[in-house]
TrEMBL record, chains A, B:
InterPro entries: AceGlu_kinase-like_sf, ACT-like_dom_sf, ACT_Aspartokinase, ACT_dom, AKii-LysC-BS, Asp/Glu/Uridylate_kinase, Asp_kin_monofn, Asp_kinase. This is Aspartokinase. It catalyses: L-aspartate + ATP = 4-phospho-L-aspartate + ADP. Pathway: Amino-acid biosynthesis; L-methionine biosynthesis via de novo pathway; L-homoserine from L-aspartate: step 1/3; Amino-acid biosynthesis; L-lysine biosynthesis via DAP pathway; (S)-tetrahydrodipicolinate from L-aspartate: step 1/4; Amino-acid biosynthesis; L-threonine biosynthesis; L-threonine from L-aspartate: step 1/5. It comes from Kiritimatiella glycovorans. One of its GO terms (molecular function) is aspartate kinase activity. GO terms for biological process: homoserine biosynthetic process; lysine biosynthetic process via diaminopimelate; threonine biosynthetic process. ATP binds at K7, Y8, G9, G10, T173, D174, Y179, R184, K209, V210. NCBIfam families: asp_kin_monofn (TIGR00656), asp_kinases (TIGR00657), PRK06635.1-2 (NF005154), PRK06635.1-4 (NF005155). The gene is lysC. Residues 264-347 form the ACT domain. Keywords: Amino-acid biosynthesis, ATP-binding, Kinase, Lysine biosynthesis, Nucleotide-binding, Transferase. Substrate binds at T47, E74. Belongs to the aspartokinase family.
Length: 403, 403
């Protein structure tokens, strides 16, 4: 008998039929003799509908009230899923995040889990019940409900798996695992049976949207065995492992593309100590999330600083960049919304040389021009024209023999 | 400066526009220098939609899970109403029933309030905030959410008014007060400026649906000043008072009709001690709510027992009555769904004779036949054919000079 935490996303519980299908799967896992704890997201579009409702009465609603509102979505789905299990004769009980003992900090709408007191969950498991927990929420020190932000249900599931010392944490989603790249872009995309935490982290943060990064970080930190699989198909998914020597032969594991960014360049800023710090401090003040940063070599005491940001932060970034340009007496500011970031990820890169040159050559052969480059130990990201992104993914997928 | 508890029903907060109108009213009450605590029901049809959702996955969902589900409705409306107040620059905070310190027993879906710890509400009022509380819910001894059943938001409001020692409890609804009878049936119906608790209790339990009976009982017990008024019109409502000598001249205060009942008769049951007890004990076992009970005089050691029940309890009542008929060797069971109960209510009846004969004569003059009669100190109820109900209301309204 194992203890298994399962997480089902919003599309997996979108209506009564989906609920029954998910309940059937949970019931089978329970019947196989396992202790089962389930974390569930809000049904289908509920979260978006609640956000819209809030915006009808307030242009920028208070965070604490937003959390009070949003938490209702998962409360609804968790109780309905529990009823669907009852209908199959499966003993089950629903719990809100606070009832399940999930404690968070006070950062409403983007709270972090500070601890879990799993006493009530243990008690229910002891009675032989499946426990269905509302994802993405917990209790603040002030006894308010806080949400963990989008993707927070994954985090709830992994944190619970760690607290309950579960044997496995299964993330059910609308894809059946982690792919070498997006199958909608590249027909040769292949499902991976296993991938390391580090690799999936790079893929997740690069727009492959398989798992929420924080959930993978927690899984890595607490050694939770993670698995991504389809809630619609009955096929094996992708296991996320801590590290695997057999993988070291493989250089590149996946290709990710992110078309949701734009590029900002500050031209001709003084190349003196503290300038870069000032630039990114100011951007942080304006709540701009900066992703890639590239600074070119200095010429005549001046340099260009380029960085990428999410398209949604563009307006705030413009304000900040204009301020900076004036204060630093820069030669100008450029905004380029017509970009995409394409990355290759693989733990094998660490010990293989020539990956970058192979990447750049393959793109050059197809006339794809590279605008920015940024590298880490296990990934190389480039910025290219947005309309070349899909082609670049296909070229690289083939070039690194991922078919 | 007064402390005022206001309650807004589901139709008063059905959409964003309604929310803003209600928020405006609350804001004005606050601006006038009052401490304001608001109890709100779920938006429009939310409660019915959640019930339907539950029934799509389970024919008779578990009570504890139903409460977990239903409580989300008021959680949504309370946070959205709070946002609407923020949009007007009015300081406000939402609380669920549990957060507001409302404690209940463990009788899920029909819980009773066992106590209120208003510390958190007091604290928020101390900060100058309007407090918006999710109606109809509280926390059980097992730290679960329980609902008070339909109409429970009225009860929440009155119980909070008692616990907070509020100066007034205003129930905003889609009618502008308590009427002498239903204006849709009788065009001469007149709004009452004042009515006693006892009278409104009889009217409420008789189908006039102005206020939930339990809320009036609590108001009476704790001396809460209650007022019913329209959330759409700005006109004075009806005050509910503890008793008023000026009223004693008036014999009858209101006429109520209830078309949601049916009549059951057990024919020829033995007229021996314990039989009636056995009958109503069995009905209670089958969860049948019995309203009027009439037992005729005995003939040759046998008697007929008739009682009325809500139409919704008919199926369970049939099972119980068939069992009883067999066990008691009765001569048969009759079910009549084609009835209505019409009642006249007035505290003045206590000291006036001839009310009953005046009632019966008026009906007889219009050829309306009476099937059952039941009386209390301040009311007389009769059962008549359902299609005569509206006419009976008009006849009695005129006869007792309520125009």
């Amino acid at each position: 008998m194992a203890r298994i935490v399962q997480k089902y996303g919003g599309s997996s519980v979108a209506d009564a039929d989906c609920m029954r299908r998910v309940a059937q799967r949970i019931h089978e896992t329970r019947e196989a003799g396992n202790d089962v704890v389930v974390v569930v997201s809000a049904m289908g579009d509920t979260t978006d509908e609640l956000i819209q409702l809030a915006q009808e009465v307030h242009a920028s609603p208070d965070d604490r009230e937003m959390d009070q509102l949003m938490a209702a979505g998962e409360q609804i789905s968790s109780s309905v899923l529990t009823m669907a299990l009852h209908a199959m004769g499966c003993e089950a009980v629903s719990m809100t995040g606070p009832q399940a003992g999930i404690r968070t900090d006070a950062a409403h709408t983007r709270a972090k889990i500070t601890g879990i007191d799993p006493a009530r969950v243990h008690q229910a498991l002891g009675f032989g019940r499946v426990v269905i927990i509302a994802g993405f929420q917990g209790l603040t020190p002030a006894s308010d409900v806080a949400t963990l932000g989008r993707g927070g249900s994954d985090t709830t599931a992994v944190a619970l798996a760690a607290a309950l010392e579960a044997d496995k944490c299964q993330i059910f989603t609308d894809v059946d695992g982690v792919y070498t790249t997006d199958p909608r872009i590249c027909s040769g995309a292949r499902k991976l049976d296993r991938i390391t935490c580090d690799e999936v982290l790079e893929l997740a943060s690069l727009g492959a949207k398989v798992l929420h990064s924080r959930s993978v970080e927690i899984a890595k930190k607490y050694g939770v065995r993670l698995e991504v699989l389809s809630s619609f198909k009955r096929s094996p998914g992708t296991e996320i492992v801590e590290g695997d020597s057999s993988m070291e032969d493989v250089v590149v594991r996946g290709i990710a593309a992110d078309k949701g960014q734009c590029k900002v360049t500050l031209h001709g800023v003084p190349d003196s100590p503290g300038v870069a710090a000032r630039v990114f401090h100011r951007l942080a003040d304006h709540d701009v999330n900066v992703d890639m940063i590239v600074q070119n070599v200095s010429e005549e005491g001046h340099t260009n600083i380029s960085f990428t940001i999410p398209v949604s932060d563009m307006k705030r970034a413009k304000t900040a960049a204009d301020e900076l340009s004036r204060e630093l007496e820069a030669q100008g500011v450029d905004f380029d919304e017509d970009i995409a970031k394409v990355s290759i990820v693989g733990i094998g890169m660490k010990s293989h040389s020539g990956v970058a040159s192979r990447m750049f050559s393959a793109l050059a052969e197809h006339g794809i021009n590279i605008g920015m480059i940024s590298t880490s130990e296990i990934k190389i990201s480039i910025v290219i024209a947005r309309d070349s992104a899909d082609e670049a993914v296909r070229v690289l997928h083939k070039s690194f023999e991922l078919e």
